């Protein structure tokens, strides 16, 4: 059997010994069969959180709630006083209340758990002689893994190959500087520190630069930090501001309710009512009036919202982000890949001696032609054009295999052009001696290479942004002769590049030479990258709702502006990365207000841009995909990473991951964010009005020295409706057009606003008046009978159902919303009504709730009466709509006319 190796042992062994011990093969890796066997022994490379408590224990812990204990106490007292009916009724009611609370809490826990599984880490692993990408949880000890910049280390790995490899271990060591990694075994005494073990890459750390390979020595629980991971995973996620404010609201309401309930009980006692009855009513009222379910309903609604967003391809990593989504008023978006497809195709090649070729055919299959003045380009007829592509191919890390691109699209596009010119294999004629990879700061890539067989003649091949390349050029190519680069020529090349940019092309310049300070400029390559479908529409929607979009790109001004125009992004001015560097913070903040297009920007500028925008009170969403974007993603209010093209580092730092890299997905997520907040408001309104109505009803009847209109069990039943399915179903109301069109919410805005409270009080007043009236009517005979309370109770419940219906929207009428658009709501209300019918007609429940069968005419009467709460709310909404349309019109009239 293969055992896992401890990191402090493996670091002292040679990599060959480790490979031998793990029975692994550096060339072929493990076979799939072997991996499957090892997985059976070692399990998945994951941390399963054991269900710490069995379900029955969790269920029983619900009874620990002091209020429930009080109720249980009163059931026991009833038992001793031989009031068996009361004892049974209270017990049944308690069981129902506790079960509903338990199911709610369980659901919320499960949905939170599901969130953590939304972004499973991946790995690149050698199996059966081929590198494959699969889920990191499938890794087993002995697997050969390749690591490159931006990756998350998928298991504990003994490194046997490292090029410039540096790993960020700050999550374990606190050390912010990335640790350099080597392959040699450690000598001397035993290494104790993570920092000492330079040949080990630890699970969960992040590759900051370079690349390397290694063999897995420990997975899952057997990894060095398995224990820490388990603790981290088991830890409860921090509460969102909304959850916190809901808990606070719950506590405040509890305090008020307790005071009122105390007063009710004391008054009842002074009036000489039965103490036990008053106690039961008091405690039930406490259970009912205190919206203890509020924070749970909020959590479930947020979690369900997150799952809904995941279905739309936006992964929100933390619950609090959902709240911020509706507040974002600026989104800074990368251009390539997010606004455009990142599917590059070379369409124009312009040589330094004035030849211009057009390329046809899309994609990387190589179908199409490169044509200059009607003839297909070849080395004989257009050597300068051929030289441009030759440099592009040599200074290139991509590959096209069976029409499929492996590597960057920019480089792939050049290779595809080379295939069309039958030049793909020209790379094989050279030996690469050194490479200076492309990065977004230098905006160029250099390769030093020599022709095979003539290794002494070394040449630099360079491609990159025009102005950067020209900085290194002293000459230019004219029909095979290298001439000095005059200012006039320099300006000509720059203006050619600008012209290409203006037509939306991404432009790369190429040059070569024997020294980097003495290059010869050869020409320009222009490639198209079409805008993504749906992005223009998404931008229009976002702009209409008051969200500003800023395009950030490493590309040139002309290209950026051209694409921006195509996407409907109007800019009063543009801002370059250089300007961002040179402007003072105040000047930058002022310029940013007017600028929509920021060009030649690199990741390091993003952080300053965010800070400047945030200083004016904006809530900023920022996209990013590279390792260097991590800081910006963290400092933005919402960091947005790219699921497909993004590095693990950026995904780790981000709050939202767009699975399809598309800005449109972000727009959909923001809509959901707004809808969730809106829905939370709706059920808060529902819960508050029910709670206030129940309290007021009992308070008034007690002070008016009337008998109790509802008994304890009935109050508890109302609590189930209030905290249970109908409230929850208001949380899943589908996204409504009007909500989406609302401008971003102020981050400081509270859930409980003045209009919301007006609605709550209005509904509560109608419910209380109507219910009291029914009670008074039934009491005409001056005797309190089960029929009287059944009528009052049913009246309250029906009022509540109609109230729930009007709570579905703050502004829209039910006709505009559509009666059947929220199926969950229909089911919840239908279920509650069915429950009410059972309570009224089903003998065992009649006994529990002390009810009596009602006539159909009673129901007709009650439905007519209770619909008033709905009708009043609809009329109010109608007035508000008409008034707001008029106000809008009024506001649009120019001030001269007013
Ligand atoms: P963003 O993704 O932020 O919208 P971008 O992808 O357009 O920006 P960069 O990738 O930073 O921007 O590219 C900036 C410029 O660098 C390009 O206009 C191009 O001239 C040059 N460039 C891009 N990729 C390469 C490459 N692989 N090799 C050499 N030069 C490149």
Automatic annotation (TrEMBL):
Its EC number is 7.2.2.10. Keywords: ATP-binding, Calcium, Calcium transport, Golgi apparatus, Ion transport, Magnesium, Membrane, Metal-binding, Nucleotide-binding, Translocase, Transmembrane, Transmembrane helix, Transport. GO terms for molecular function: ATP binding; ATP hydrolysis activity; metal ion binding; P-type calcium transporter activity. GO terms for cellular component: Golgi apparatus; membrane. Residues 9-83 form the Cation-transporting P-type ATPase N-terminal domain. Pfam families: Cation_ATPase, Cation_ATPase_C, Cation_ATPase_N, E1-E2_ATPase. The keyword Cytoplasm does not apply. Coiled coil: none annotated. It is found in: Golgi apparatus, trans-Golgi network membrane; Membrane. Its main location: Golgi. It is a multi-pass membrane protein. SMART domains: Cation_ATPase_N. Signal peptide: none annotated. Catalyzes the hydrolysis of ATP coupled with the transport of calcium. PANTHER family: CALCIUM-TRANSPORTING ATPASE. NCBIfam families: ATPase-IIA2_Ca, ATPase_P-type. Belongs to the cation transport ATPase (P-type) (TC 3.A.3) family. Type IIA subfamily. This is Calcium-transporting ATPase. It comes from Dimorphilus gyrociliatus.
């Amino acid at each position: 059997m293969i055992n896992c190796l401890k990191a402090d042992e493996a670091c002292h062994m040679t990599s060959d010994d480790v490979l031998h011990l793990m029975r692994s093969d550096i060339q072929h890796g493990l076979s799939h069969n072997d991996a499957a066997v090892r997985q059976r022994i070692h399990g998945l490379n994951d941390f399963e959180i054991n269900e710490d408590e069995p379900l029955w224990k969790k269920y029983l812990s619900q009874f620990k709630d002091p209020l429930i204990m009080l109720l249980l106490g009163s059931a026991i007292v009833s038992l001793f006083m031989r009031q068996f009916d009361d004892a049974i009724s209270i017990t049944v009611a308690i069981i129902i209340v506790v079960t509903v609370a338990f199911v709610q809490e369980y659901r919320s826990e499960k949905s939170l758990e599901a969130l953590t599984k939304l972004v499973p880490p991946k790995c690149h692993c050698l199996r059966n002689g081929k590198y494959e990408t699969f889920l990191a949880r499938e890794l087993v000890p002995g697997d050969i893994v390749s690591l490159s910049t931006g990756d998350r280390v998928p298991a504990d790995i003994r490194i046997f190959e490292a090029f410039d490899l540096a790993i960020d271990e700050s999550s374990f060591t606190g050390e912010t500087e990335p640790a350099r990694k080597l392959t040699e075994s450690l000598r001397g005494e035993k290494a104790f520190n993570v920092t000492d073990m330079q040949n080990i890459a630890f699970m969960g750390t992040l590759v900051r630069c370079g690349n390397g390979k290694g063999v897995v020595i420990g997975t899952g629980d057997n990894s060095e930090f398995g224990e820490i991971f388990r603790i981290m995973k088991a830890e409860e996620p921090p509460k969102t501001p909304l959850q916190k404010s809901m808990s606070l609201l719950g506590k405040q309401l509890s305090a008020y309710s307790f005071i009122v309930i105390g007063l009710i009980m004391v008054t009842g006692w002074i009036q000489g009512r039965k103490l036990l009855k008053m106690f039961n009513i008091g405690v039930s009222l406490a259970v009912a009036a205190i919206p203890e379910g509020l924070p749970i309903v909020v959590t479930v609604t947020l979690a369900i919202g997150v799952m809904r967003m995941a279905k739309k391809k936006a992964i929100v990593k933390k619950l609090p982000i959902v709240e911020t989504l509706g507040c974002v008023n600026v989104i800074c978006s990368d251009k390539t890949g997010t606004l455009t497809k990142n599917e590059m195709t070379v369409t124009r090649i312009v040589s330094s001696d004035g030849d211009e070729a057009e390329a046809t055919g899309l994609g990387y299959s190589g179908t199409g032609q490169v044509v200059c003045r009607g003839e297909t380009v070849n080395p004989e007829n257009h050597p300068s054009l051929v030289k441009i592509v030759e440099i592009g191919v040599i200074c290139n890390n991509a590959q096209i295999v069976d029409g499929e691109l492996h590597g960057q699209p920019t480089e792939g596009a050049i290779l595809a052009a080379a295939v069309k010119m039958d030049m793909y294999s020209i790379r094989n004629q050279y030996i690469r001696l050194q490479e200076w990879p492309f990065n977004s700061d230098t905006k160029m890539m250099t390769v030093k290479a020599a022709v095979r067989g003539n290794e002494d003649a070394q040449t630099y091949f360079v491609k990159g942004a025009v102005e950067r390349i020209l900085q290194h050029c002293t000459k230019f190519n004219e029909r095979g002769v290298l001439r000095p680069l005059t200012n006039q020529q320099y300006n000509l090349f720059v203006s050619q590049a600008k012209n290409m940019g203006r037509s939306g092309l991404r432009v790369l310049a190429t040059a070569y030479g024997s020294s980097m300070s003495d290059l010869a400029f050869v020409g320009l390559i222009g490639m198209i990258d079409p805008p993504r479908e749906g992005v223009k529409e998404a931008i229009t929607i976002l702009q209409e709702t008051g969200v500003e979009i800023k395009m950030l790109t490493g590309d040139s001004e002309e290209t950026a502006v051209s694409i921006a125009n195509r996407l409907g992004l109007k800019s009063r001015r543009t801002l370059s990365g250089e300007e961002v560097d040179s402007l003072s913070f105040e000047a930058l903040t002022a310029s940013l207000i007017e600028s929509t297009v920021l060009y030649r920007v690199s990741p390091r500028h993003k952080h300053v841009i965010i800070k400047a925008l945030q200083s004016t009170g904006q809530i900023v969403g920022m996209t990013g995909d590279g390792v260097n974007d991590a800081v910006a993603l963290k400092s933005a209010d919402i960091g947005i990473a790219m699921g497909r093209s993004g590095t693990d580092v950026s995904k780790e730092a981000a709050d939202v991951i767009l699975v399809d890299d598309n800005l449109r997905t972000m727009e959909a997520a923001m809509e959901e964010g707004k809808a969730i907040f809106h829905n939370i408001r709706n059920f808060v309104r529902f819960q508050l009005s029910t709670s206030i109505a129940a309290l007021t009803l009992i308070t008034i009847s007690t002070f008016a020295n009337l008998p109790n209109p509802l008994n304890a069990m009935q109050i508890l039943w109302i609590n189930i409706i209030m905290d249970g399915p109908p409230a929850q179903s208001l949380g899943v109301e589908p996204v409504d057009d009007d909500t989406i069109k609302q401008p971003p919410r102020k981050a400081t805005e509270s859930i409980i606003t003045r209009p919301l409270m007006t609605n709550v009080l209005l509904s509560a007043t109608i419910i209380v008046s109507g219910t009291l009236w029914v009670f008074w009517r039934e009491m005409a005979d001056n005797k309190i009978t089960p029929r009287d309370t059944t009528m009052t109770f049913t009246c309250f419940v029906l009022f509540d159902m109609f109230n729930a219906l009007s709570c579905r929207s703050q502004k829209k009428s039910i006709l505009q919303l559509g009666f059947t658009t929220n199926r969950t709501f229909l089911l919840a209300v239908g279920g509650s009504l069915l429950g009410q019918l059972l309570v009224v007609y089903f003998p065992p429940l009649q006994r529990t709730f002390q009810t009596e069968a009602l006539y159909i005419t009673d129901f007709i009467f009650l439905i007519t009466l209770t619909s008033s709460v709905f009708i009043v709310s609809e009329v109010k909404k109608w007035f508000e709509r008409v008034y707001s349309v008029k106000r809008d019109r009024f506001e649009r009239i120019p001030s001269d006319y007013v």
